[in-house]
Amino acid sequence: MGDLSEECVESETLPKDWDKRPVKVLVASNFDSVAYDRDKDVLVKFYYPTCKHCKQLEPTYKKLAELYKGRDDVVIAQFNGHKNDLPVELHGYPTLKLFKKGSNRVVDYKGPRTLEDLSAFMYSNGVSPPYDAGNEQWNCCRCCTPS
What we know:
Blueprint: E1 24-26, H1 31-35, E2 41-47, H2 52-68, E3 74-80, E4 95-99, E5 106-109, H3 115-124
Parallel strand pairs: 1-3, 2-3
Antiparallel strand pairs: 2-4, 4-5
GO molecular function: protein disulfide isomerase activity
Domain Thioredoxin: 1-127
Protein name: protein disulfide-isomerase
């Protein structure tokens, strides 16, 4: 784990509603406790506010978060790399990393930035689809659609 010491790490202020939004807000001070929660699969988008590619990904990422909202075992989050010291090594923005529940293994996402591909990535890494029999919104792709 990152072992971030609050006294030497730059962290923006954590919004009071950080965990009430579909896309949860991570800052340096809460990163370890959320990303390395062994009871949750946590997908983190590391972004830079002025990055063109980060802005292009935002609507798709919000849709993914909407699909998984209400799930206690899955967190879709974002981390502002401009206002917080980075807890992990990055090679560019945006970067997506899945922190696996149970093992805390980190899986880097390197695929296309579509809702279908992001959903397939989650599913292929053991995250069950966001199925709700009364809500067809989750049915975004064929990768995780029950037959």
